[in-house]
Amino acid sequence: MPNTECKILRPNIVEETVTGINIKDYVEVNSAISLAMQGLGEGIQLLNFKKANLQDQIRNLIKIELPKGKKSSTVKEKKQINISFKGKLDKTESFLVRAFVAILLINIIFTIFSKTLYNQMDKKQNEITSLISKQQSEISKVNTDNNLLNAKNTKYISLTEELKAINDKISNIASMRNSIPNLLNQIMYVIPEEAQLVSIENTTGRKIKIVAQAKDYDPLGYFIAKLKVEGYLKEIISSYGQKSGDTVKVTIEGDLP
Q1: Helix axis angle, 217-230 relative to 91-190, nearest 10°?
Q2: What pLDDT, in 10s, does the model give residues 23-80?
Q3: Lowest pLDDT segment from 10-24, 96-110, 189-203, 208-222
Q4: CB neighbours of 214 closer than 8 A, spacing ≥ 6?
Q5: 211-215 long-range CB contacts below 8 Å, 24 or more apart?
Q6: DSSP conformation class of 198
Q7: Are 256 and 179 a contacting pair, CB within 8 Å?
Q8: Smallest Cα–Cα separation from 254: which of 193, 205, 195?
């Protein structure tokens, strides 16, 4: 080691005047003293023949170097701060320990808070899912009831229309039952003595077909005019008189009022 100064250290128990001590004893004592001084941070740390344990490895990992100032534009002085786990902690070590404990506590609190929040969110999500399922079930019941009501409403409308048709038919039958006798009674007062009724027929609905005859056209014309004027029939249509021998026949069609 040409660039390193080497010394043989003299133990305090050995006086300088004492001679005849074996050099092997000096070397063994010097090795022990060197290891002790390096353990205390003295001497050249790179020349350490002691096997590093776990504590030394951790201490080397958390070693902090802080810039102290500038000696020149290219060279910087750095102050080394070593953290030791022996003895009383200095301010830097105490700060780092507190920071580590604070970070650990924050992580623990954050984990607990996240777990609690996640459990609450999961609980609320389950409640929401349950409510959605319940609402969907209620909606399904409402839709079923609505379809049932629509079916009943359709059936009710159909029955109502059938009942109305039956009532109209009954009304028509009743009105027709009274209209024909009324028509016959009215015809009795307006038909001339020279004219005779051959037949009177209800063809379809309120359609009436009358066949009358006379010896001349005049009584039949008077009879047709009287039916129109009095309004006993509506939309009256009469055929031309057909004469057969001494008799003239005419067909009269119209609607009951």
Answers
A1: 150
A2: 666 666 667 777 777 777 666 655 555 555 555 555 665 554 544 444 444 434 444 4
A3: 10-24
A4: 192, 194, 195, 196, 220, 247, 248
A5: 211/249, 211/250, 211/251, 211/252, 212/249, 212/250, 212/252, 213/247, 213/248, 213/249, 213/250, 214/247, 214/248, 215/246, 215/247, 215/248
A6: E
A7: yes
A8: 205
Q: End-to-end alpha-carbon separation of the chain, Å? A: 145
- Contact predicate 191/223, CB 8 Å: yes
Structure tokens at 219: 């009584």
Q: Please state, as a whole number, how many other Cβ atoms lie within 10 Å of the Cβ of residue 221.
A: 16
Cα–Cα distance for residue pair 98/90, rounded to 1 Å: 12
63 dihedral zone (left: phi>0; alpha: psi -120 to 50; beta)? beta
Sign of the torsion formed by the C-alpha atoms of 19, 23, 24 and 28: positive
Residue 56's nearest CA partner among 45, 65, 66, 67 is 45
Cα separation, 24 vs 36, whole angstroms: 19
DSSP letter at 22 equals -
The C-alpha atoms of residue 95 and residue 40 are separated, in whole angstroms, by 22
Burial of 220 (0-12, 13-18, 19+ CB in 10 A): buried
Nearest to 79 by CA among 60, 94, 64, 61: 64
Per-residue b or e along 20-42, where b marks 16 or more CB atoms closer than 10 Å to that residue's CB = eeeeeeeeebbeeebeeebeeee
The beta strand positions in the chain, using DSSP E, are: 64-70, 76-81, 196-202, 207-214, 234-238, 242-244, 247-255
